[in-house]
Amino acid sequence: MKKYIVSRVGYMIFTFLLIATFTFFLMQTLPGSPFNDERLTEVQKQVLYERYGLNEPMAIQYVKYLGNIVKGDFGVSFQFDGRAVTSIIGERIGVSAVLGAQSLIVGTVLGLFLGIIAALRHNTFIDYGAMIIAVLGLSIPNFVLAGLLQYWIGVRLQWLPVAFWDGFAYSILPTIALSAFVVATMARFMRTEMLDVLGNEYITTARAKGISELKVVLKHGLRNAMIPIITILGPLTVALMTGTLVVEKIFSVPGLGEQFVKSILTNDYPVIMGVTLFYSFLFILVILIVDLLYGVIDPRIRLAGGGQREGK
Amino acid sequence: MEKILTVEDVHISFDTYDGEVKAVRGVSFDLYKGETLAIVGESGSGKSVMSKSIMGLVPKPSGKIVNGKIMYKNRDITKLSSKEYRGIRGADISIVFQDPMTSLNPTMTIGHQIMEGIMVHQKLPRKEAEEKAIELLHLVGIPNPEQRVKQYPHQFSGGMQQRVIIAMSLACNPEILIADEPTTALDVTVQAQVLELLKEIQLKMGTSIIFITHDLGVVANIADRVAVMYAGKIVEIGKTEEVFYNTQHPYTKGLLAAMPDLNTGQDELQTIPGSPPNLLYPPVGDAFAERNEHALKIDFLHDPPMFKVSDTHYAATWLLHEKAVGKAKEIDEKIKVKKQSKTVGVQKSVRQEKLLEVKGLKQHFPDSRQSVIKAVDGLTFDIFKGETFGLVGESGCGKSTTGRTLIRLYDATDGEILFKGVDIRQQNNLNKEVQMIFQDPYSSLNPRWTVADIIAEGMDIHGLYKTKQERMEKVYELLRTVGLLEEHANRYPHEFSGGQRQRIGIARALAVEPKFIIADEPISALDVSIQAQITNLLRKLQREKGLTYLFIAHDLSMVKYISDRVGVMYRGKLVEVAESDELYANPLHPYTKSLLSAIPVPDPNIEKTRKRVHKTEWDMSASDYQLREVVEGHWVACTEAEFMQYKQAAQKEMLFV
To answer: Which helix or strand (DSSP H or E) is residue B180 part of?
Structure first.
């Protein structure tokens, strides 16, 4: 197991550097420059280029850039004079993390619940109802949902604040907008998996022991159905992170996503690259965690090696 | 004897898209305390559904008990609420399923799975429940139960898993244990152990066992009474000796005759023609009439009632009616005459020309870590033209891998395979000369292709026809050869029964006119009556086309019947090779002995008196351990010293010839 984790971490670092390289060169091919302001004179521009090292050959810029990344230095922002990218990320990440985690937890719990209920009441009204919710959640984009929520619940009904970030009440609408997709995906997967698992012979065996139906589902069904569910947890988390870009902007939540969008509009290369790398890092981390979670849930993976059986 | 369960006229139906399938159609029987009642039948006969209904486990909402009573402790348990039923399940009545691998929850320790029932029914605290679980594991013969109790199912072998399940079902000392094909997924030697375990437990705890199986050998071994089910009904029920030695129903007779006899050589197996009826439209009258060549007129019109043969023996056939006595005798005579005519003239193939030579074949697969799995580890044997070479062994011994390597589905790690004297790696049209028949007729046919395309694919590849017309003619001819009809050509595989599909698989193999066919467990997925049909077909084709077979199987009685010579494999090596009669009469290697002694024979008297040879350990690692020829044509893996002993024993035998 230890060896496995070490090799996985190795791969993570490699992937990370690859992404860093890729983002760097992508950035270089973008048209325009951060100092496109017409009020700046040629000389002033030259000074700025000099200061941020933008007039050096690309190869040298790249080497410096990689070197700085290894040291944990993502450069300084162009738009906020002299502020380190890391400090910008650090300042913004808290809000995004709260929003993301809230959406993931709400979405997963609600989605699993819907999925299980749908599977247990297979081919009934409840099943169909749950699946309609799932299809809606998948097919309505989060920015449309966000707008609808703002208009109806925020403006018309005046139940919850429409925008900004000032306490829990402010987080409710963005959380709903973000988690709809998670609920839908989870519910659909859980239903399929649960139906599959409930058809297994060990479920019949469990029933034959005379234990209650609730125990059969929760103790025997759920854990087995969770194994494939974990697989989609990774992509879902990733989808949530990218979802925050737009949703934060719509609700004017001062999170990392909002900052990211703003930086793209002003060609603030260091921040764009810094945030991209930060997201990539999170993605890679999520995938690693998901892989490790398999082992926790499935003893056949955790105890691999002890369980060699002669195959047919 | 004390009656503990009475089943009265139970009918069970399933709602499907096509309509109502009447899976069980009026079954009645009693179960007595401490006895083993075997329920025998082919797949689809309703035996499994019947047993599940006793547990209240008929899948809902599609399945339901339409009619009838199941009386247990003066209550009709079919009327119980689900909560009341839970009180009985696992406590008074428990069940063991067929496949141990799928009936254990892979994510829960086995201890936990055993404890669950104890904690619910006996309300014991966790600590005591665990002690009880350890005790149970000890009872079913699992070594080191204190450590094993904390392990997960995948850390146990198949046989051990089945022991765990038996422990689980015994957790609350049930009065009735339902065993639904508990040994079908196991190797013969493991099967013998599990059967012994069940008998031991019955003796200790006085449990009544309902044992569901399709294997008449197992029935002869374990049952006190037998009920034979066909098309949702019990057609014959009685004490095991009565049913085996005074068989009344034509279906039971057919089943017994279809089993190959280990003792006599037969030229052709008796078969039951056709396949069981579709229970969506159950036939009027005796359901077996359509497959019974001696059926009476009344069989097609009226359902026979249960006729009494003795106090304990009943059968549902009109032949027992007083007006049919004369006719019944006549039919018995006919069958006897036919049987005699079939046992004459067993011909042995003449061995002259070597078709296939295998020398030191090794097939290793890299494991996930640094080690390799030695699936096949140094095989040497020859197959002569026109013979059938049987390869037997337990699951995982490498017999299937050998077959696959011979047809180059795998490239051999080491060793030489010569086909007609030439290395198979240098043969361009090996696939035209060698063909394969697979075990599972369901997954080995592409479901989206028509039968004609499936059969003709090989001909397409090798360009064996000129016109479309010629292609279809060849397909028709092949269909006729394997006993199917021309109009089957345009249908899809799902429209056929298992036996018919296997015939399609055989037609596919024959399409390119091969010389050599590798049959990898071709009959083990089929019912007994269908097995005989396919085996006869294979023999017939061999005679007509001069084919050579490599017949891979774990069913030793069938292997003996079909093979000229047999090789026994153990852990990737051959331990014994001999002519099949010689091997069965005079096994030398301890593994062969234990394997042969484990096959249950469909004869209760033999089963009762028989002693099993338990697998004794033998050392295969000695440097001079190799195949040696003891008598002409009889090879055994042994050391030099053992070889001398075998040789001396063989010479002594010779003196008495």
So the answer is: strand B176-180
Query: Nearest C-alpha of chain A: how many angstroms from B570?
Result: 12
Q: Is A310 close to B55, i.e. CB distance below 8 A?
A: no
Q: The tokens 């050869």 sit on which residue?
A: B481
B226 touching A (Cβ < 8 Å): no
Output the DSSP codes for B152-173: -GGGS-HHHHHHHHHHHHHTT-
Does a structural domain hold residue B500? yes
**With the C-alpha atoms ordered B533, B536, B541, B542, is the resulting torsion angle positive or negative?**
positive
Contact across the interface for B90 and A299, Cβ inside 8 Å? no
Residues A230 and A223 sit within 8 Å (Cβ to Cβ) = no
B368 touches chain A (CB under 8 A): yes
Distance of CA B243 to CAs B216, B314, B476, B598, Å? Answer: 11, 9, 43, 23
Tell me the shortest Cα–Cα distance from B205 to chain A, in angstroms. Answer: 19
Q: Are strands B36-40 and B225-230 parallel, antiparallel or unpaired?
A: parallel
Q: Under a CB-based contact definition with an 8 Å cutoff, are residues B22 and B279 in contact? A: yes
User: What CATH number did the domain enclosing B457 receive?
Assistant: 3.40.50.300
Query: Rounded CA gap, B438 and B534, in Å?
Result: 13
Contact B471, B489 (CB under 8 A): no
pTM, to two decimals: 0.82
Question: Between B95, B104, B155, which is nearest A202 by CB?
Answer: B104
Instruction: Centre a 10 Å sphere on the Cβ of residue B602 and count the other Cβ atoms it contains.
Output: 23
| CA distance linking residue B246 with residue B239, whole number of Å | 10
For residue B448, give its domain range. 354-586
Question: pLDDT band at residue A310, thresholds of 50, 70 and 90?
Answer: very low
**Under an 8 A CB cutoff, do A207 and B94 touch?**
no
Residue B1, in any domain of the structure: no
Evaluate if residue B324 carries a pLDDT over 80.
yes
Indicate whether B431 belongs to any domain: yes
Query: B210-219: per-residue pLDDT in tens?
Result: 999 988 889 9
From CA A124, how far away is CA A118, in angstroms rounded?
8
Evaluate whether residue B18 is within a structural domain. no
Q: Which domains does chain A have, with CATH numbers?
A: 1-76+269-302 (no CATH), 93-265 (1.10.3720.10)
Report H helices in B228-348: 240-245, 250-258, 325-343
**What pLDDT, in 10s, does the model give residues B223-278?**
999 999 999 999 999 999 999 999 999 999 988 888 876 665 556 777 888 878 88
Measured distance CA(B655)–CA(B648) in Å, rounded: 11
- pLDDT tens sequence across B329-370: 888 888 777 766 655 444 555 677 889 999 989 998 887 666
- Specify whether the CB–CB gap between A149 and A177 falls below 8 A: yes
Show the tokens assigned to B551. Answer: 């017949």
Helix (H) or strand (E) holding B550: strand B548-553
Overall domain count for chain B? 1
> Could you tell me which of B141, B158, B244 has the C-alpha nearest to residue B197?
B141
